[in-house]
Structure formats: C-alpha cells, structure tokens
Amino acid sequence: MVGAEGEVVDKYRAAGRILAAVKEAVLPRITEGALLLEVAEFVEASIRDKGGEPAFPCNISRNDEAAHATPAIDDEAVFGKDLVKVDLGVHIEGYIADSAVSVDLSGEHGALVEASEAALTAAIQLIRDGVTTGEIGAVIEHAIRDRGYRPVVNLSGHGLAQYNAHAPPTIPNVRYEHGVILKENDVVAIEPFATDGVGKVAEGGYVEIYGLIRPRPVRVQEAKTLLQVLEQYHGLPFARRWLPRERLDLALRTLKNAGALREYSVLREEGGGLVSQAEHTVIVTGDGCDVITK
Questions:
Q1: Average pLDDT along the chain
Q2: For a designed S-S bond to 237, which of 4, 29, 56, 102 qualifies (C-beta 3.0 to 4.6 A apart)?
Q3: What confidence score (pLDDT) does residue 3 get?
Q4: What phi and psi, each to the nearest 5 degrees, are found at residue 259?
C-alpha cells in the first residue's frame, strides 16, 4: 500500500466529498415501499452528476444480507420493514472513497445499528501513524461484543489504491495479536459489521456484481464486444444492469468460463441473523486520521 500525497490526496478528498453529499441525499429515499432499483440508480447517477464515477455498484443489502447485493435489471423489489445497508463507492481517476450506513426501517434494531457505528467510532479514535491493524480489530470487536452482539469475523476493512477497492492491508473486525502497521498518508476503509447471528457470512446464491480479472481470448462475438465495454471499469466491480442486454447471459457465461470474470455472490449471515454495517474512509496522519467521507 502506497501512501497518498499531493494531487492524489486531493482526488481522494474530492471523491469523499461527493460520496458524503450523495449519502446524505439518498437517506430520505430509503423508505418502506420505495423501489431498491430507484435508490441504486439515484446513487449512481448522483455520483456522475457531481463529477465522480461509481467505484462499484451501489450495494443495498437487507436483513441477513451483509454485502454484494444490488438490484437486478428491471428489479421490482421494494423496501419493507428491513434493516438496510447502503454501501457507496466513488472514484476520481481511480482514487476511491468508500462508505456505508445502516438504516432500520422497522424501528426495532437501533441497538444493532448502534453497535457497528460505535465500533467505527472507536476505531477512528484509535487510528494514527504506527497503530496496527490488529489493534484496530481489537477495539472493533470490543465495541460490538460490549453491546451484546458479534462481529462478523470473515468481513473486514481494507486499504484503498488506484482502481483497487480492496487493497492491502486487511483490517479485521476482531482481535489479532499481530497486524500491519499503518503509516502516515495511508488510505483505508474501516468497516465494522455487527450481527445477532453466529458472526460469519457465506455466499448466498445469486450474483448481480462482477469484476474483470483480465481479458481472455474468446470466440463468441458478444463476449468480445462485452470485453471492450468492460475496459472502462479498469478492473473495478460493475453491475449486470449496467451492461448491454443483447445476449448478455451468454456473454457473461463465456467470459466466466474463460476465467476473465470474478463473481461477487451476495454474502449472507450463516445463522440467518440480522447484520448492521458502518464504514468510513480515512487518511492516516501522524497523530490521528482525517475522515474524508463525512
């Protein structure tokens, strides 16, 4: 992980300002009966209108879903009395800001939402030049368990690099004895997940988000055409609904079978528990950190 300086820092900060504004604007739209697709498209269009690009499709994960859920083409699903996680990413020339918030539409799970938010706050208060990722994991775990919930052990925060939304280092949500030492100007996303379930997620069966690993030779013309379309994402995740629809299933299947695509399956809590999420992007300083997504 390379620290951000000069013009690069300016691009991270610009991405963070766009994200913060879009996140504030979308929250009133997350209401019972609203279409998930309209919310996702609002987020993505707003990012572009403000001069950024989505770093990944707007994730709208509900209840036991923890990550990688985004609406399908012509999706008609609406919000119910859900525990909603909205995860947004913005990039400026590949420099990414990443943030997430939980919204409890039932009014019954405020304590679970507060657990992930408190863990995020505790982590941000600890971060400075010289702190280790293991120490960050310890305060996240303590904040969540202290409120009677479990951290999700196989989800984590992460570094951010140009056109890489999940760069080293991994920042665990549980205690580790050892870890990577953070340095001044490192850019990282802190991302606690709390649950009333077993504390672990697994792939949940459906896929709407993909990423290009590398171009591969293919014979199917639709797959060749799709590869050209995907160049614009520079390896960042994209939604199926962003793509040309003509024979899209064939093109995606061909690229997957050729080893050109990775799939981001929806992640669900293994015990069926509810999951809350909170996330900010920070730039490490000598005596603390700057939160660029609020």
A1: 97
A2: 56
A3: 66
A4: 80, 20
